[in-house]
Amino acid sequence: MIRVSPETVLAVFAIFCRIGACLLIAPGFSSVQIPARVRLYVALSISLALAPFLIDTVRPTLGDGSAFAVLGLIFSELAVGLMIGFIARLYFLALETITVAITQAIGLGAIPGTVNENEEHVPSLTALFTLTATTIMFITGLHEQLVRGLVDSYTTIPPALGFGPRLALVNIVDQIAAAFLVALRIGSPFIVYSIVVNFAIGITNKLTPQIPVFFIAVPFVLAGGLLLVVVTVREFVEYFASAFAAWLASG
Fold it and tell me: What is the pTM of this model?
């Protein structure tokens, strides 16, 4: 049983700052298609559920309870939560970037796009793969690992140490490199396909300049690209999910 006191309320609020800030931009939880009130209730519910396990770690950092100490703790916890949520978001931003490149590579770039979870217009293939990755995150329980990682963050980044901008910057840069390396590995078959197909079309166009080879070849390029998507989509999604899970387990 937790004794309710002003220090307890402030400690629970500090826990909510880190967890709420993370879920504010974390993939899946931050979708604008989910009402803001629902997202707030989810963050509050998770914070209250984890408070009994974390309150003994947070309460001593309140110090004498002065406004300066409390505000410093609140801003530090908000920064840590935003950093964790942003790093998780990086993997989905990398996936969105490479799927836009894939759309261009297989000839779907001219087709009007759709609106993704952030109400941005993206190609239909990008929206499809982003939604699939988000769905798999919840189906496979990766969202639970994200919450578990938030709990573990109180050990790796304890509130008493505060927010370290230098360490956060190094961590973000490392994860950007890792996320876009994963994206490059996913999109490499389509990049090779685009280079080979466009090189072949270019040579054919030089050999037969009287025939509009490019316009004739567009349906075949599109058909070949969609066939490549069908063949590689399973490995595509499995590799992304495993890479994201590896970061959750180690990060």
Answer: 0.83
